Amino acid sequence: MVSVIATSLDWGGLIVFAITGALVASRKQMDIVGFSLLAAATGIGGGTFRDLALGLTPVFWVRQPAYLLVCVGVALAVFFTAHIPQSRYRILLWLDAIGMAVFAVTGAQIALAAGVSPTIAIAMGVATATFGGVIRDVLGGESPVILSHEIYVTAALLGACVYVFLISAGVAEAPAAIVGFGAAFLLRAAAMRYGWSLPRYRPRPGRAFDLSSKDRHRGGPG
Amino acid sequence: MVSVIATSLDWGGLIVFAITGALVASRKQMDIVGFSLLAAATGIGGGTFRDLALGLTPVFWVRQPAYLLVCVGVALAVFFTAHIPQSRYRILLWLDAIGMAVFAVTGAQIALAAGVSPTIAIAMGVATATFGGVIRDVLGGESPVILSHEIYVTAALLGACVYVFLISAGVAEAPAAIVGFGAAFLLRAAAMRYGWSLPRYRPRPGRAFDLSSKDRHRGGPG
Amino acid sequence: MVSVIATSLDWGGLIVFAITGALVASRKQMDIVGFSLLAAATGIGGGTFRDLALGLTPVFWVRQPAYLLVCVGVALAVFFTAHIPQSRYRILLWLDAIGMAVFAVTGAQIALAAGVSPTIAIAMGVATATFGGVIRDVLGGESPVILSHEIYVTAALLGACVYVFLISAGVAEAPAAIVGFGAAFLLRAAAMRYGWSLPRYRPRPGRAFDLSSKDRHRGGPG
Hints:
3 copies of one chain form a homotrimer. By secondary structure, chain A is mostly helical.
């Protein structure tokens, strides 16, 4: 039962992230190989970083090539069917929210299984949830969703914290995963719907200054 | 005999990729250290990713520092001799095609030797062939050759597939490597010469929409 | 005694690099989570690459979560106190110079302890010293300090070379580390102060040409 839920979440996250990669490729009018590359980079990028940092090598998709093949399959499906106009960018953001929430939980899960401390498990949840999207946006020339003004990384952090806390408190795997996923997804969804953001660092008067290279040579305070 | 060919290909690919890195540095008028950095990142970047993902650590250039030293030597040579004007960008593209074709084969070769499945060996061939150039273009501020409209990644994919298929079919190492290299190089060369590209995803009417941040807040379909 | 100095340098380098990451976040008016991400990426990015390439996994901050927590603490401190106007970019450059000089030495130190050759130890010093800053500048959308016209990577190279040479010559750990740090920091400081740079590759007449995509199709010399 537990492993069914964990496995479903895992594949579900991979698939929605792969779709977002393919959607970015469609926005850039790439060819089918470009679709596959972006789908794979988005779907497996976060988990690759997690596995490398934890020393779980060969990384998961080398051990189970099915992950890579599913990404390519998703890319093919999107390439031949992604004709739904206009709303595509909003679909991308919502799928990205699902993938982020899933990977925040499964990233922490795999890290805990590797025997790391709760702090690191949370960090791995955040990294797994966010790195795939960063790679997608950098390769596709998009403004990184991770830097969007609405809450994003914070939602991944919340999901990973909730999951790790529940596991530490003795809650079973399945409910912990579902509650963690729900916390991350709902926070991100609310942030997108209502434009929520954390308080930002505010510039003070007199702070603005020129960043041209001659600034670097100034002797005195600018 | 086999290992002579494999070793020659390996060093040849490293050297031509290092040259392309140094040529990008020359276009950016970097200093000698910048030349060395770009030459090394291009020459060893793809193989570093391959070794990390496969768990072959320490990575190859840590085990054999000569790889790094050759990149630095190439950088020095280009720094003091790269005066051939005008045609430099075309030279860069042709050398890049050779390096790509070589690394598509040797990347797959090393992955197979590490015991992975054919699917992963092909993926490693593609990754080894393309990542060095991506790093070069990102560091040098160039438009990534991987996203060029002419066939590029597809050529690496073809070379890796041909090599892995021939090895699986019992063909000896040397002919398999040479045929794989030839397939990748000739496809890329034809694509550059005749402007070949795969069919691209085509936008449909009504698909265009504004990507400014206010789009992210819209409630209804844009 | 030795380990006190090594540990102090190590934490000192982490803290100043984390501060520079948080300062870039303040320039971009990020929220507290953005501050933490940039501080952590800058503080631990170089060492993460070093550990991965050397096969020292799990990487250092997975083994010792305190590194990550200190970066987050630094981010919080900067978020609530970084009101000193105007001179912030110059502070950033000077702190960056300290962090670079520290990590050039500690990167080489850890590599030597892992049993690699002097060449690789020097390369690891340079990589550890420069990669964190590259990640910071890429994530923060700044022009990479590594590509600044004043000497930068060369200073890291000098520090790592001096340290490795002194250790090879039988000098004790502590003085070797201090002299290596001093060499890297003073060279970078002088370069910033007086605008020093290495001779750069100079374009020759007739070298300039158009880089638009149609260039890629030209048959003859441009």
